[in-house]
Each structure stands twice: as structure tokens, then as C-alpha cells.
Write a structure and sequence with these properties.
single chain; alpha/beta; Alpha-D-Glucose-1,6-Bisphosphate, Chain A, domain 3; TATA-Binding Protein; 3 domains; 6-stranded mixed beta sheet; 6-stranded antiparallel beta sheet; 16 helices
């Protein structure tokens, strides 16, 4: 029997548990990573291994640790489910050579995943991911492993608590006392994931109250299709925040590397606006300077902020495997993507939903504004922008058919707006005459096509997206 080929997407490998995602496949994947590390440097001193709250994640992390230890690599295994940013920072704090994170992030509950990080705690670049893939053996018989208990006895696997070092890093990046004492009423929806308990822990002891929803361990993720901080998954959290008269809703995805934001009226603040707010916060409120790195699927508001504050804006393909290396190259002030993942200067080049949420709350306190007022302030600087996206499933194995249709299309108008250009860096991004855009791209991990748009016309969003689906051939 031939084992399924393991292919890395924009952020590691994900698959359905008990289908392609099995203990055998995870062992093979871990062997590929171990071989990559040993070939790259001739030796590898240590690796961080962490995991999320999905079904069997602790056991999959244990299997990974056994393979790494069997290859002579010391393993620091987290002592419980841990947010991705804390795992990434542990790489730096312990001077490790990288990390493996067992998580499928925002995927459905049926899935699990295998993320890898480099020695700086950031995503491994596309070339490195290809090398890891190439080293994954076809058969489990080619995997070198040792039993967990033997590895612990030999001090090749050590359990550790990643929280203290990560919390010390947060304290260096932001003073939370003003937030703690502001008397805000904050609701947090960690989406049954690894973000549970972190904001109450960080902000406890002052006048601000923190109330969590969906904070227990439940790997079927009730009240949402998947732990992804976009509608409709966030609807229960928004209702609860409105019922509790919250000043804001903070939403984390399953591994807490992404952040979602709800306003005081129980309305969702989409991730493009959040990216704009965070960039404005860094530039205006903190008076910091540096390049902005953005994926092509996120907001043109950043280009306008770049012009206002005279900072360069650099566009990359979709995924932090593109954003993280570019951030390091240019010492970026902030980097981010449309899905709500943001990284910051002075920290690891990794999405950090917890730090991003603290920056949003700090912005509210420093400017004494509610979330909806923050958006109004941003729009005063860059103009109004409206965004939405549609994810549509495709028949398995038919991607090329639909991609050929898009490639052959030559639309002159989209949503009634003239098409002014086409960018094929990562997908098909049609520029529109109002400065907005339509992007069509295929998921790297699922048989799904994503259609995104941003426009300055609130009443054209739906029409633009419908035209995008027609270009794909499913409208």
C-alpha cells in the first residue's frame, strides 16, 4: 500500500484525522523535518514541540517528539495546549533550532495539522518547505524513533511551561496597566482553543473586567463550523458581547495566532479594517516607523497610510511563509494578512493574536474611543473601505479546470467598475478603477476557491463578489 504524499500548504500540512492524518503520516512528516534540520546544519541542538486542543493533539505531539529524539534532537515539549505565538517565542527564548506545532489552526474539527517554524520563530520560507517535503519518507519503516519514556529518561525529551518567558516578552512590548485600570468591559471568544484564559491572566487585578465564552476544552467546536474568526463562526460571540454590554469583543482562532474584533454595538470589525487600525496605532499612537509588509489579499488602506506617514509598503504572496522572511529582511514595523494574522517589530516574525488584541485595547484606552469610533477615525485618514469574501468548495481534482477558466477570462467590468490591471503573484487579483480590487485564489490546503474584494462603494461588494464567482465559472 502506497502512503499518501504529504504536501505543505501556505502554513504547513493539514489533513483529516484518521484519513490522511494518522500517526504513521505524522511520524513520516516528523522524520522529514528532522532530516531537513540535520542536513541543513549538520546537527540540530533542540526543537520546541507544542500542540492545540484538537482531538488527539497531545498524542500526535508525543509521536513527533519520539521521532525527533530518535534522530538525536533534544525536544522541549510544552506541558499543555499552547498558543502558537507562545510556541514561536519559546524558540527564541530557548535558543532552539525551530518548532513543530500540532494544530490545524482554523480548519474544521475533523482536521489536524503540522506547522513548522525556523530558528527565529517564524514561518519557514517556501524553498525550505519544499526541502522538508522532499525528505519525507514514503514508508514508516524509514522513520527513526525511540519510545517516549526512554527519551525522557535519557533527557532527550523535557516538558516545560512556555508561559513565563512569553509573558515577560509581552511586558517588554506593552504596558498593560492602563488597560487593566481603564474599567472596560471586554468579552473574549477563544473559540474553544488555545487562547482560553490568557487575557484574564494578563489583565486581572484592575477595574477592567474580562468575560470569556467558548473557553472550555471541546474539540467539536460547538456554535461554529470551525474556529476561524469570521462570520458566521463569530455570531454567537457577537450576540453574547451585546447581551453583556461589552465595550469590545476579542476573538482568537483555534491556536490564537489570529485575532478578530467586535465593536460595542455587537458588529464585526473585519480583518482588513483591523490591519488598518493596527498600522495606524503603530504609526500615529506609538509614533513608530518602519516598512509595512502585507499580502496581496489584504487592504489598500495600508498603501494610503504608507503615503501619509512616508513608510514603504511591500506586498507579498498569501501566507506567512512569504510575510515572515520579508519582515526580517526589511525590519518591518508590522506585517499581516487578510485572515487576521499580524506580526510586529521587536517580536518574533509570527502572527500573534494575543499581542494584537492588547494593542487594540491599548488603542481604545489611549484615544478614549470605542471600536466603531476607531474605525471612523481610520476612515477620516484613508477614506471608507468595504470588504467581504466568499469561500466556495470545488470538486476534488478539478482545480485546473477552474483555473483555466479564470486565466482565459478577460473581464472589462467587475461590479460595474472598470478593470485597470491584473496581478498574478498569488492567484488572480483584478484592480478596479476606484482603487479597490477582486482577488480569486485557490486554497493550498483544501479543495476551495476563495473570492475576496475590497471597494470604496458599500453597495457594490455583493455585486463584485458575484462577478468573481462568474469568472471562476460557479456563479
Amino acid at each position: 500500500m502506497t502512503n499518501p504524499r504529504i504536501k505543505f500548504g501556505t502554513d504547513g500540512w493539514r489533513a483529516q484525522i484518521a484519513d490522511n492524518y494518522t500517526f504513521s503520516s505524522v511520524r513520516r512528516c516528523a522524520q522529514g523535518f528532522a532530516t531537513y534540520l540535520l542536513e541543513k546544519s549538520g546537527k540540530s541542538d533542540s526543537i520546541i514541540v507544542g500542540y492545540d486542543r484538537r482531538f488527539a493533539s497531545p498524542m500526535f505531539a508525543r509521536v513527533v517528539s519520539e521521532v525527533l529524539a530518535g534522530n538525536g534532537i533534544r525536544v522541549f515539549l510544552t506541558d499543555g495546549p499552547t498558543p502558537t505565538p507562545a510556541i514561536s517565542y519559546s524558540v527564541v527564548a530557548r535558543a532552539a533550532d525551530g518548532a513543530v506545532n500540532i494544530t490545524a489552526s482554523h480548519n474544521p474539527p475533523s482536521d489536524n495539522g503540522f506547522k513548522v517554524r525556523d530558528s527565529r520563530g517564524g514561518a519557514i520560507d517556501p524553498e525550505g518547505l519544499k526541502q522538508i517535503e522532499a525528505h519525507i519518507p514514503d514508508a514508516e519503516s524509514d522513520v527513526t524513533s525511540m519510545s517516549f519514556d526512554d527519551a525522557v529518561d535519557a533527557k532527550k525529551i523535557r516538558m516545560f511551561d512556555p508561559a513565563p518567558a512569553y509573558l515577560e516578552q509581552l511586558a517588554r512590548l506593552i504596558d498593560v496597566e492602563p488597560i487593566r485600570n481603564a474599567g472596560l468591559n471586554i468579552m473574549v471568544d477563544p473559540m474553544w482553543g488555545n487562547g482560553s484564559g490568557w487575557l484574564p491572566r494578563i489583565l486581572a487585578g484592575g477595574a477592567t473586567s474580562i468575560l470569556e465564552i467558548h473557553n472550555r476544552h471541546n474539540p467539536i467546536f460547538p456554535e461554529m463550523k470551525r474556529p476561524e474568526p469570521i462570520p458566521p463562526n463569530i455570531d454567537a460571540g457577537l450576540r453574547a458581547s451585546l447581551e453583556q454590554d461589552a465595550d469590545a469583543l476579542i476573538i482568537f482562532d483555534g491556536d490564537a495566532d489570529r485575532v478578530g474584533f467586535g465593536d460595542e454595538n455587537g458588529k464585526f470589525v473585519d480583518q482588513l479594517r483591523v490591519f488598518g487600525l493596527l498600522a495606524y496605532y503603530m504609526l500615529e499612537v506609538r509614533n513608530a516607523r518602519g516598512p509595512i509588509v502585507k499580502t496581496l489579499s489584504t487592504t489598500s488602506m495600508l498603501n494610503k497610510l504608507g503615503e501619509v506617514y512616508d513608510v514603504p509598503v511591500i506586498e507579498t504572496g498569501v501566507g506567512f511563509k512569504f510575510v515572515a522572511p520579508k519582515m526580517l529582511e526589511v525590519d518591518a514595523l508590522i506585517g499581516g494578512e487578510e485572515s487576521g494574522g499580524f506580526a510586529f517589530q521587536g517580536h518574533v516574525p509570527e502572527r500573534d493574536g494575543i499581542l494584537a488584541s492588547l494593542y487594540l485595547l491599548d488603542m481604545m484606552v489611549r484615544l478614549n474611543l470605542k471600536p466603531s469610533q476607531l474605525v471612523d477615525l481610520l476612515f477620516e485618514v484613508v477614506g471608507s473601505h468595504y470588504y467581504d469574501r466568499i469561500d466556495s468548495p470545488l470538486p476534488a481534482g478539478q482545480r485546473q479546470v477552474y483555473e483555466d477558466r479564470i486565466r482565459q477570462a478577460d473581464p472589462q467590468l467587475i461590479g460595474g467598475l472598470k478593470v485597470t490591471g491584473l496581478n498574478t503573484l498569488d492567484g488572480y487579483k483584478f484592480s478596479l478603477e476606484d482603487g479597490g480590487w477582486l482577488l480569486i485564489r485557490f486554497s493550498g490546503t483544501e479543495p476551495v476557491v476563495r473570492v475576496y474584494c475590497e471597494t470604496t462603494f458599500a453597495d457594490r461588494v455583493e455585486t463584485i463578489l458575484k462577478d468573481g464567482l462568474k469568472i471562476v465559472g460557479i456563479g
